[in-house]
Amino acid sequence: MKRLFLLLVPAALLMPMPATAQSVFDGTWKIDMKKVDFPRKPDALLLQNGMYACKTCVPPYEIKADGTDQSVTGHPYYDTVAIKVVSDHAIEETDKKNGKVVSTSTSTVSSDGNTVMFTFSDSSNTNGGPPVTGKGEATRVAKGPAGSNAISGSWRTTKIEGLSDNATDQSHRPDLHRQAEWHRRADEGRSGHHQRVREDEGQGHVGRN
Question: CB–CB of 49/65 below 8 Å?
Fold first, then answer.
């Protein structure tokens, strides 16, 4: 579920803006997470017999769930994943890139098995800045096989909240170099709604892409 956030928020922050001398998009914008449309396709996970599989990761992978770093390929922001089984209802994940921790998360399934609560800290795409932190919830769409950890099955994210400001605030200024990056990143993810904060006027205006 954490990976949904990694795809969704950066794309919303980096939507293409006109490269004009003075743009109506100049200023600081805040994503209103209550208005973000989460993808309908659920995340599919399986934790059973000491193995963990993320079937909907791109590309998908299957690794040992023994708490040690396991190599994965094809992922731009991490090259190892460590899954620690905390209990039959909870796991901890640590992702690294070139031996450096870039993200951590904890996922805990509710006692009725229908909701998973997750927290995360991620610095994989902050360009050396402080990590993005937050929490969220996902609702079960399908159960995992008999005997598997409760985290197994299909989950649809329904809430992400408590995000650090560096995840939801973005300042836009005309810059041709950044325009190219905005266009590239916008093609990789999904867009959200933005709430613009006009710092020079001390007022807030609501807008959307």
Answer: no
Amino acid identity of residue 187, one-letter, is: D
* Phi, psi at 177, each rounded to 5°: -65, -45
Distance CA 43, CA 56 (A): 6
Look at strands 27-31 and 193-198 and give their pairing: antiparallel
Q: Is 0.90 topped by the overall pTM?
A: no
How does DSSP classify residue 23? -
Q: Are 125 and 96 in contact (CB under 8 A)?
A: no
Phi and psi at 181, nearest 5°, equal: -70, -40
Q: Which of 122, 127, 89, 88 is nearest to 105 (CA)?
A: 122
Cα distance between residue 49 and residue 173, in whole Å:
52
DSSP 114: S
Task: Read off the pLDDT band of 170 (50, 70, 90).
Answer: low
> Three-class SS of residue 182?
helix
Inter-residue contact 151 to 109 (CB < 8 Å):
yes
The answer to whether residues 113 and 105 touch, using CB atoms and an 8 Å cutoff, is: no
Check whether 8 has a pLDDT greater than 90: no
Mean pLDDT value of segment 130-142 = 94
Q: Which of 93-97, 98-102, 160-164, 166-170 bottoms out in mean pLDDT, i.e. has the lowest?
A: 166-170
Cβ atoms 123, 130 nearer than 8 A? yes
